[in-house]
Amino acid sequence: MTAVPLLALDQIAALAATRPPVAVLAQTDLNTDGIRGWILDNLLPLLLLTVALLLLWLGGGKGDNAGVMRRVGGVFVALAIIGLAVSGTGVDIGTFIAGLFSTSSG
User: Fold this and answer.
1) What does the alpha-carbon distance between residue 10 and residue 7 come to, in Å, rounded to a whole number?
2) Residue ranges, the chain, pLDDT below 70
3) pTM
């Protein structure tokens, strides 16, 4: 068992007396900006590089150009979906498509 110095306990008691612990904890915002930024800055370029190298390695040397182009088309569709998810324009596109089928006169 580790002994805690009395000075540290006195400092904690002084802090708790001036500010309730609930108020201190409630001041911090919980969000996912840090992990989202890390994924966009680090993980996504690494995954794109890996996919590009795999496409070149798997199909480029065998002369299967049609197969490579099918895979590249799938990658472009996946990149478009990721772009819509990251930029937040998916809501605008959904609103536009819903407006095509809407019968309201407003």
Assistant:
1) 5
2) 1-6, 8-9, 15-28, 59-62, 104-106
3) 0.44
